[in-house]
Amino acid sequence: MSLISTASAQATQSNPTESPPFITRERLEPLLVVITAFAIGTSLALEASGASEGLILVVNIISYLAGGYYGVIEGLHSLKHREINVDLLMVLAAGGAALVNQWHEGAILLFLFSLSNVLQAYALDRSRRAIQSLLDLRPDTATVRRGDTTITLAVDALKPGDVVVLQPGELVPIDGRVIKGSGTVNQASITGESIPVLKQVGDDVFAATLNEHGALDIEVTRPASESTLSRIIKLVEEAQDNRAETQRFLDTFEQYYAMIVIAATLLLIALPPILTNVNFSDNFYRAMVVLVVASPCALIISTPASILSAIANGARRGILFKGGAHLETMAQIKVVALDKTGTLTTGEPGVTDIITTSSLDEDSLLQLVASVESRSEHPLAQSIVRAAHKRQLTIEEPSEFKAIPGRGLEAIYHGQRVLVGSRHLLENDGIAIPDELYKQQVTLEDQGKTVLYAWRDHVLGLIGMADTARPEAVALVADLHKVGVEKVVMLTGDNARAAASIAQATGIDEYCADLLPENKVEKLKELRDKYGAVAMVGDGVNDAPALATATIGIAMGAAGTDVALETADVVLMSSELNKIPYAIALSKRAQRVVWQNIAFSLSVIVVLVTAALLPIIELPLPIGVVGHEGSTLIVVANGLRLLVFKPN
Ligand code: ADP
Ligand code: MG
């Protein structure tokens, strides 16, 4: 259908530096609509004043050319692909009306059809602009430090390594890392979180977020074109091409349906004059009315109008659906599985216990472990590094490093092999755990703590860490049940005792502990077979296989992490767990609006076709067109309501 191709054509030309050609469809189409209306009015006036037929014909032809211009282009375009679309049906109907000398009726049809296309494109454009408007939040220039002075540069000219100076109250122009100063930054535009986040040296900041109070120096980490913001916008625009299942069905349906309508119209033209003695031209006119009112315009737009609005709604709250298909599947979710560390918990566990075997003291053990962990992205690793910083220990990166997902890591540090991780990691390597250490492990785990062993040549000791459940995790389970999720399950690679304590704190329905990444995958398959659609929520860094296995993979806290943006189907920019029930509620509402629209469009078609066929009613073409285009606009407006949807 014409306006969908317009929408995606506009999406691809979103590069702000390229100025669009002067005559665009956006500008020309409304103008043609006005010309059509004007020509129709002139023609009626000429007719009333008894002007010559030749002159009236010229004006009528003008109204057809202006009103049918884009219809013909779109119709021919679809014919080239051996398809029939509604534009073609409309052009045929208008042509038919002219054949039986009903020029005005045909022109009114073209006028209303193109007017409705303009209105639809405008309405759908609102969803798109809701996303594009995010870009307006980004300033165009930045203050850059050069030696002792500062200069103002265009944001597009900034390169990684440049140092941008930010005053309190300024918007962050580009993705970067704080190298001086500290202060709170409101990241709502990227993550949807309303509470400002404290940023200190070493923290990442994102373009289009608001630096509230602090004076910050940030080092640019990515060029403007690759900023998190730009990628969000790109993802959402691509999402429009990843069509919902319902829409794919409707697209196929449209083809067959259009052919049936054409066949039925031909029969309506041919049969009655053969069977009875009806007036050919009256009968032909009626066939044209049927052709128009039976056309599935409203049906075709019913889905994209709703899906696009829902995707835009999510994007503004930091929820990115990477396609209409995922939005639809989200509405079916029966089970939500969550990773523990960093997802259900804050992922900032404090180091609570350091137990060494005699050869090392506590600080040396922590210094060693923090050094090898400094290369790891795992939340446990970052906490250990923080603990070492607090004790002012110097951290030296290992010369070699390998993460072993779900177990720990292996590194070469000062020429020696070092292992840090769970008991399984050591046992897998044939290393026996001394009995008294194992007893300590059990004691710590009974307190709900996570225990890591360190090994270099022999077992050096262990580190106990305590993680806490996110405060909003408690409401999560109830909220998920409320939106129709049957089971909320925690999957963790951590020990059963730590898992049990978090499960208890959050009231989660079920938990599985001691899972390696591949066990998580198996478990998800089990859940999928047993319950149906399963969503897996993780950080997207070390859960990629699980996210890929689940019916829907949801990556959380994704601002700044590239992997998460790639692997997941739905991306939550912040780590707020309440975004999960919101996303499910939104998708359910979208589903409902889609079905409302489909039911409504079909009913209108049935009513209008009946009215056109019943001899006692004899629906006039202009009324049929108003009903037909009116229903199309109602469907679009209903879809737009999703832009402002808020779950209660
Ligand atoms: P979760 O499923 O809770 O997110 P992971 O699967 O990421 O946990 O990790 C499981 C276990 O593997 C951790 O509890 C820890 O014992 C060990 N582990 C994973 N990564 C590391 C690391 N970088 N350093 C030390 N131990 C690790
Ligand atoms: Mg994890």
Task: Explain this structure.
The chain has three domains: 3-132 and 235-310 and 589-644, no CATH class; 139-226, Calcium-transporting ATPase, cytoplasmic transduction domain A, CATH 2.70.150.10; 350-466, 3-Layer(aba) Sandwich (Calcium-transporting ATPase, cytoplasmic domain N). Helix content is 54%, strand content 16%. Helix 1 runs parallel beside helix 5 (103-136), helix 2 runs antiparallel to helix 3 and helix 8 runs antiparallel to helix 9 (280-294). Residues 1-17 have low confidence and may be disordered. With 648 residues, it is of the alpha+beta class. Strand 16 (450-456) and strand 17 (458-466) form a beta hairpin. The chain has a seven-stranded mixed β-sheet, with helices on both faces. It contains 23 helices and 22 strands. It binds adenosine-5'-diphosphate and magnesium ion (MG).
Q: Which ligands are bound?
A: adenosine-5'-diphosphate, magnesium ion
Number of helices: 23
| Fraction of helical residues | 40-55%
Average pLDDT confidence is: 87
Give a quick account of the main beta sheet: strands, pairing sense, barrel closure.
7 strands, mixed
Radius of gyration: 32 Å
**Strand content bin:** 15-25%
The largest beta-sheet arranges its strands as 10-22-21-20-11-18-19
Tally of discrete structural domains: 3
Structural class, from helix and strand content?
alpha+beta
Q: Tell me, what's the shape? A: elongated
Number of strands: 22
Low-confidence stretches: 1-17
Separation of the first and last Cα atoms: 35 Å
